[in-house]
Amino acid sequence: xxxxxxxxxxxxxxxxxxxxxxxxxxxxxxxxxxxxxxxxxxxxxxxxxxxxxxxxxxxxxxxxxxxxxxxxxxxxxxxxxxxxxxxxxxxxxxxxxxxxxxxxxxxxxxxxxxxxxxxxxxxxxxxxxxxxxxxxxxxxxxxxxxxxxxxxxxxxxxxxxxxxxxxxxxxxxxxxxxxxxxxxxxxxxxxxxxxxxxxxxxxxxxxxxxxxxxxxxxxxxxxxxxxxxxxxxxxxxxxxxxxxxxxxxxxxxxxxxxxxxxxxxxxxxxxxxxxxxxxxxxxxxxxxxxxxxxxxxxxxxxxxxxxxxxxxxxxxxxxxxxxxxxxxxxxxxxx
Length: 335
Ligand SMILES: [Zn+2]
Ligand SMILES: [Zn+2]
Prior knowledge:
The protein is α+β, with helices and mostly antiparallel strands.
């Protein structure tokens, strides 16, 4: 299956957790948390449509300035999602700079503050020196917080040592598979039209005529006909991102709202279980607890992240604890 989401932990399992997810066939990406990072190229930052912040501890939020610096001159807005207080915190960052020469900049920052039963949305434009331009309150039910054509995002409010911390899921509505054998049999040649076909199917726009490259030259064929000939629909891909939470009943019940059967779960393994008392007090998970959550969320692969520096030379034990409930694989945990 050709992946729709191409995800990577920018800093690996160590240091600040930053998960970058490229949306295939689109020049856009979603990032989960935004602490210190060095290895994202400018083109990757420019592709960012959305940043989902779990909470505003410095090591999850300080990289926002680096993103802002790179996207400052673009036209497309930047969406930021975060827990209670995120509007004030993002505005504070924006307003800490001088903007007397930005009146012709097009960038707009849309900040979405996720609260129980509602989302507060604030807009701030570079042209206005990032002053608050508008604010609205939108009711919400369930976990859905954002929807685009190729993906949607869900969030649940968790507890991190007394502050709200969001757990996220990135999901694909359904997955479109192209049957390679059928492609060859029909004499069609792969090209950008396949991406357009997927967009038409996702938009329900199967009446659109597409220009298809074939071995006997270009042909114009309705998307609906191509769908019948070439496409198999399967369950959509899904990724969950969970960090900075204590292993409490309340947090585990809230996580259950995100559902089960994730293709990939990125989850903090801050401590080894020998420090589970400290983990509870500081609102973190041990590797053993993360493994249990991975099992209960039925994650296909679980990737440990945000390992405390005190355990960086004990990664084999982190994996061993995490795999107490799972079977190990080189790049994650497979059940
Ligand atoms: Zn934290
Ligand atoms: Zn943290």
